[in-house]
Sequence to fold (324 residues):
Amino acid sequence: MKPSIILYKALPDDLLQRLETHFTVTRVANLKPETVAQHADAFASAQGLLGSSEKVDSELLEKMPQLRATSTISVGYDNFDVDALNARKILLMHTPTVLTETVADTIMALVLSSARRVVEVAERVKVGEWTSGIGPDWFGIDVHHKTLGIIGMGRIGLALAQRAHFGFGMPILYNARRHHTEAEERFQARYCDLETLLKESDFVCLVLPLTDETHHLIGKAQFEMMKKSAIFINAGRGPVVDEAALIDALKNGEIHAAGLDVFEQEPLPVDSPLLSLPNVVALPHIGSATHETRYNMAECAVDNLIDALNGKVEKNCVNPQVAS
Ligand code: GLV
Ligand code: GLV
Fold:
């Protein structure tokens, strides 16, 4: 008999078919308690769980006593209680490699659009303001050859460094838990402590996952250290930044602008002060959201679940130690 799984995210037809050749699939809209209650038997017997974004915690796991593996269509897994998974020997699979280049492209888009005010001036063209010509109040600031600070030198940080170094001639500073030889040798990235990075960078790019250690890593004190001309970019996770402090820093002119793909609360509430600041480019968490990459992530997550439930966890596994 095929193992049964719960799918809580829509998949392209061909990937759903691939999944169904291996598993009996129960599709649900989300993992809310009422949904779980409605499909209690399917949850109780499921050995696998596939989807993204929703919270997976002890409360849910208690309803899934047969669960052996969960697979998220994302690189980030801060929405999972990893300790609870470990305690129950449940594997957690993710998609760390397939989205790297796309997310780095998104970060460059944020860098360029915040510095050159692309969104703002394009809107002014659309409402007819160009007809009276443009002046210095339409100008931006340069990106090329400015100093880029990268906080978090993982795969995405490295792909960003490559773009910035070769494409834009930008000197690169980085801060990470350890030195990254490849970044230093290929892109002349210079390791420095967080304070030095914040003080010296023209663009401060945050590409960190959310963990207990990174929560509110950037707050009032850190914004005060940045240049008044600095542009702050966050494409990791919202809660790594104290958003109230960011809003103050933008309002008080402690930093020049921000480009944000992630927020403390998502979707961003319509009354967020960030939405009324002209010096903010806010994107709806689209770091990896291209047709190609979202397909590749879904495929990777499907294959990860097939591998995990067949005892193969050589790659893409957050907690391979529970397999033994
Ligand atoms: C997106 O934010 C991801 O974690 O894949
Ligand atoms: C990006 O989404 C990350 O988790 O590094």
The chain has a mean pLDDT of 97. The pocket of glyoxylic acid (ligand 2) is lined by residues 75-76, 156, 207, 209, 236, 287 (CB under 6 Å). The longest helix spans residues 291-309. The two ends are 24 Å apart (CA to CA).
